[in-house]
Amino acid sequence: MHDLAIRTEDLTKSFGEIRALAGLDLEVARGEIFGLVGPDGAGKTTTMRLLSGLLRPDAGRAEVAGLDVVERTEDVRRLLGYLPQTFAMLHELTVAENIEYFADLYCIPRGQFAQRSDELLSATGLTEFTGRRADALSGGMGQKLALICSLIHRPQVLLLDEPTRGVDPVSRRDLWRIVYGLPAEDVTVLISTPYADEAERCNRLGVLVDGILQTVGTPQDLVARQTSRPIELQATEQRLARNALEKLGGVETVAVVGQALRITVRRDGPGPEEVLKALDGAGVEATEAHWAQPRLADALLAIAERCGKDG
Amino acid sequence: MRRPATLRRMLAVARAEWRHNYRDARSLAIVIALPVFLLLIYGYGINLDLRDLPFAVQDLDRTEQSADFVNRLVRSGYFTLARAIQDTREIDSVIEVGAVRFVLVIPHGFGGDLASGRPAQVQVVLDGGDSATASVALGYLQALVGDHSIHLARRWAMRHGLPASAVEPALRVVPRVLYNPELRSVNFIVPGLIAVILTLLAALLTSGCIVREREGGSFEALAASPIAPIEIVLGKLLPYAVISFVDIVLCMVVGRLLFGVAPMGDKALLLGLSLIYLIASLSIGLLVSSLARSHQVATLIAFLATVLPSLLVSGFAFPVRSMPVALQAIAQIIPATHFLIIIRAIYLKGAGVSAFAPRVAALAAMALALVLLTVRTFRKRLE
Ligand SMILES: Nc1ncnc2c1ncn2[C@@H]1O[C@H](COP(=O)(O)OP(=O)(O)OP(=O)(O)O)[C@@H](O)[C@H]1O
Ligand SMILES: [Mg+2]
C-alpha cells in the first residue's frame, strides 16, 4: 500500500472573489495523526471537502492513498471516513439506526457489522443510548455518534473536521482517546481543530491562514521555531492593560490566559521589568511579570497575527 | 456483487426516509389528513349542479296563465322565487346586489295571447357576471319554457277538439346523457380532484427531501459516501410511491363513501396506472429538490411546476380543446393531462387500456424520462 495517505499539489479553490485555498501542498504519511490548525475561514473545511470530492478544485490535484480524488472519486470515498463540521446525522433516527444507515451506505458485511458497532459503542460509552434519537443527544454524544458512523467501515483515511467544537471536556477526552488508538489500526487521521491543546496531541501540524499553508511540523518544531518569548503578568484592569500592551513596541501577541495576561516579545523586545515599567508609565496597574515556558498556543497565535498584519 | 450492494444502499435511503416521515408529525399529517381534507372541501365546494337558483318576477300581466307559468318554474326545483318586482327600475338593482340570478318579466297580454292561441313572449334578464351559471340557468329555463308551451298547446288543441298529437313538434330533442346519466357534477369532479390532490401531494412530499438534507447537514455525509445517484433517487422515490399509493386508495374510498362516486372500470388497472403517474410527479418534486437552494424555494417551484399546470392547463377545469393552441401543446407535455383523461375514462366510462393506450405510453415515457433526468442531474457535491 501507499506510504502517503494524503498528498496535495498546488490545490486551489475559490468561491467567487474569496480565495478559500491557495496552492496547498500537503503530505500526510500513513499512520499519522495530522492536525490542520488555523483561524476561522482559514480553509480547513475547504481542504476536507476537496479531499472527499464534495468540491472540485479550481487547480492542482489531490490524492488519497494514491488515488486521484477527481478521477477516482468513488474509489476514494470507499476508503475514506469523513466527519463533517456540521452535524450530519439523521435527526429523526436513533443512534442504532444511524449506525446501521452508514453501515448500509458503505455495505459493511452483516457479520462484521454487529461486532464493529458494539466495539465502537462501548468505546464511546454510547451503548446505553442506542435507542435515543440523534436530535435528542447532547453535543458531545452527537459527535461521538458521528465518529462511530465515520469509522464503521474501517476507513484507511479519516477526515475529522473540528470534531470537538462545542463538546464538553470529558467527551473531548473520550473522543481523543479513540483518535489516539486509530494509527494502531492503520488509520491515518487528518483532524482540524481550533484548540491549541488539541493540536499538541497531533503527530504533525499544518498551520493554515487565509488559504495558505504557513508552516508544517511537529508541535515541538513549531514551538522551537518561535523567535519571540512569552511573558506572563497580572493586571487588575485586563482590558486597559491589553490595549496598552498591544501598542508597546517589540510585543508580538497579547492573550488572556485565565487570570493572567500572556504576551510574546521579540528577542530585541522588552523584558518583564521593562513591560511593567511601560505599563506603569501608561497608568495601568500590573504586577508579577516573569518569563514563561514557550507553548504551542503562542506559536499558533504568532503565526496568525503575523499573517493578519501582512494582509 | 454489485447488484446486492446497490439494492442495500437504495433500501437504506428508503428506510431512513420512511422513518423520517413516520416520526415527523407534520409529514404524517400531510400524508393522511391533507388528501381527505382537500377532497371534502372541494368535493362539496365545487358543485356545478343547478339547484334552488333565486330569481325574481315582474308580472305585468297578473292573469291565471302568468301565475301558472311561474308556478311551473318553481315546481321544477331548479329555481326559487325570491321576490316579486313592481317597478322596472328595481330589475337592475336586485341583480346587481346578487339577490337573484335572473329576473323574469311577463308582459301585458301574456295570458290573453295564450288564451287566443297566439304566440306569447316572456323576457329574461340574466346576470352575465357568472357566465357559467347564467348559461346553465338559461338552458334549463329554455327547456322548461319548451315543456310548458307543449303543455299549453295540448290543452288548446283539446279544447278545440283536435287530437293532442296534432301539436307535437315536428322535431324534438330528446337528450340522452352518456357516461354521467344523472348529470351529477361530482361524478365528473371527484376523479379530476383525485388527480389534482395526488399531484399536490407528490410535489409536497418529494420537493423537500433532498434540500432538507442539504440544509440539515446530513447531505454532506451522504454525498461523501460511495452511494450512486441512482441509488439515492430510487431510494427517495420508493417510500413516497408507497405513501402516495396509499393516498390514492384513501381518496377512492372517500370518494365512494362520501360522494357515492366509484370507478365504473377496473380498479386494479386504475391503481397500476396511478403508480406510473405518481412516479412522474414524485420525480418532478425530487428533481426540483436536488437543484434548489432552499426548502421554501423548492416547495414553491415544485408547486408551480406541477400543481398549477394540473389545475389550469390539464383539462381539470377547462377542456383542453377549448384552450389556445400554445397551451394545448403545453398540456401534452404535462403528465396530469394524460392521467386526467385516463382516470376520468376509467371512472366515468369504465374504459379499458385500449381506449387510452397512447396516454399510458406518454405517461410511462414521461415517468422514465423524469427519473433519468433526476439521476443525471444529481450531483454528490456541495456547489
Ligand atoms: N460554499 C461556499 N461559498 C462561498 N464561500 C465559501 C464557501 N465555503 C467556504 N467559503 C469561504 O471560504 C473561506 C474558507 O472557508 P472554510 O470553511 O474552508 O474555512 P475553515 O478554516 O473551515 O473555517 P472555520 O473554522 O470557520 O470552519 C471562508 O472565507 C469562507 O467564507
Ligand atoms: Mg471549517
Describe the structure in your own words.
The complex is a heterodimer of chains A (311) and B (383). Helices cover 36% and strands 29% of the residues of chain A. By secondary structure, chain A is an alpha/beta fold. Chain A folds into 2 domains: 4-218, Rossmann fold (3-Layer(aba) Sandwich), CATH 3.40.50; 227-293, Alpha-Beta Plaits (2-Layer Sandwich), CATH 3.30.70.100. In chain A, the strands form 3 sheets. Chain A has a 6-stranded mixed beta sheet, sandwiched between helices. A 4-stranded antiparallel beta sheet of chain A has the order 2-1-4-5. In chain A, helix 3 packs parallel to helix 5. Chain B folds into 2 domains: 53-178, abc type-2 transporter like fold (3-Layer(aba) Sandwich); 185-382, no CATH class. Helices cover 65% and strands 6% of the residues of chain B. Chain B has 15 helices and 4 strands. Chain B has a 4-stranded mixed beta sheet, sandwiched between helices. In chain B, helix 7 runs antiparallel to helix 12 (295-312) and helix 7 runs antiparallel to helix 14. Bound molecules: adenosine-5'-triphosphate and magnesium ion. Residues 15, 18, 20, 38, 40-46, 85 of chain A line the site of adenosine-5'-triphosphate. Residues 44-45, 85, 161 of chain A line the site of magnesium ion (MG).
Summarize the structure.
By secondary structure, chain A is α/β, with parallel strands linked by helices. Chain A contains eleven helices and 14 strands.
Query: What is the approximate shape of chain B?
Result: elongated
Strand content of chain B: 5-15%
| Average pLDDT reading of chain A | 91
- What is the number of independent domains of chain A? 2
Number of helices of chain B: 15
* CATH structural fold name of the largest domain in chain A: Rossmann fold
The low-confidence parts of chain A are: none
Question: What value does the Rg of chain B take, in angstroms?
Answer: 29 Å
Output the structural class of chain B: mainly alpha
Using the alpha-carbon principal axes, give the shape of chain A: globular
Radius of gyration of chain A: 22 Å
